[in-house]
Specification:
alpha+beta; Glutathione S-transferase Yfyf (Class Pi), Chain A, domain 2; four-stranded mixed beta sheet; about 55% helix; Glutaredoxin
């Protein structure tokens, strides 16, 4: 039975972290809103008979199991797709890294919506400019520096974040680099020049056969200014 992924059909967003895991594993899945529209997704979110409704997309349906929140979805899929460590301690560590990725994603989004998601970017441009400077100067270096330190300290690994093999946080780190270099090409480029191990993970993931095929396909949505990572040149420096 194919997994069913529910996410907005026109953006990469948080759903892309799940798509990358499914694609790398070669797992059959339906990208429901892209294939059937958003109505089935909204019905599962708002339906009174749904035992565990999600607050927002993405969420994943596997038979009778319905799971929301990107990090929880990946925790669930990791062992099933061979993308999680075998031991419990390392599985929790992988989950911790993924939660930190989630923190970064929120901060990247809030650069262009610092006052509230319900307001247009044009309504909060001065505040966004202030938030962007702090994100560029302090937060991007802090996050990417942390990932670089993890990669350096994982002496038993082969250039991956956890253990000896690729796990789902490595796929997510690839997407983080993709997003940051799209939204903040100047600022991200400066930091990535000082984090070679992070860049090495990005390049290794990009070269994986199933990921390379996915990136070249129409299943991979192009980044755009409705997404989490948005390219507003005035916010980059």
């Amino acid at each position: 039975m194919a997994y069913e992924l529910y996410y907005w059909p026109t953006i990469q967003g948080r759903g892309e972290f799940v798509r990358l895991a499914l694609e790398d594993a070669g797992a059959p899945y339906a990208d429901v809103a892209r294939e059937r529209g958003v109505r089935p997704m909204m019905e599962l979110m708002t339906g009174r008979t749904v035992a565990h409704p999600s607050f927002a997309p993405p969420f994943l349906k596997d038979g009778d199991v319905l799971i929301g929140q990107t990090a929880d979805i990946l925790l669930y899929l990791g062992r099933r797709l061979g993308l999680a460590p075998a031991g419990e301690t390392d599985r929790l560590w992988a989950h911790q890294i993924q939660l930190t990725v989630a923190d970064l994603v929120v901060e990247a989004h809030d650069v262009h919506h610092p006052l509230g998601a319900g307001l247009y970017y044009e309504d909060q441009k001065p505040e966004a400019a202030r938030r962007a400077k702090e994100f560029r100067d302090a937060r991007i270096p802090k996050f990417l520096g942390w990932f670089e330190r993890i990669l350096t300290q994982n002496a038993a690994g082969d250039g991956w974040l956890v253990g000896e093999a690729l796990t789902y946080p490595d796929l997510s780190l690839f997407q983080v680099v993709e997003g940051l270099t799209y939204a903040f090409p100047k600022a991200a480029g400066r930091v990535l020049a000082t984090t070679p191990k992070v860049m090495a993970v990005h390049e290794r993931v990009k070269a994986r056969p199933r990921i390379a095929a996915y990136l070249a396909s129409d299943r991979r949505l192009a980044p755009n200014e409705d997404d989490i990572f948005r390219n507003y040149p005035e916010l980059d420096a």
